[in-house]
Amino acid sequence: DGRSVQLLLYKLDAPTLRLTTLTGQQITGRLTRQGDITAVWTPDVPLSAGIYLLSVQEGAQRQTLRVLVR
To answer: Which residues of the chain have pLDDT under 50?
Structure first.
């Protein structure tokens, strides 16, 4: 619904998250840990329907995923 993104962060202690639109516009928000591996990323403004890119980085390790908001 665009109000949050649920995440499983295996073996990541202090990751940096970056959510962008497909055109590169960065979306601001905050990450809240809910356990050892679970977290919720909440955008400052609810996301519109569409596809976004979520980059998760810690040190030299980075992974980018597509996020679909309906």
So the answer is: none
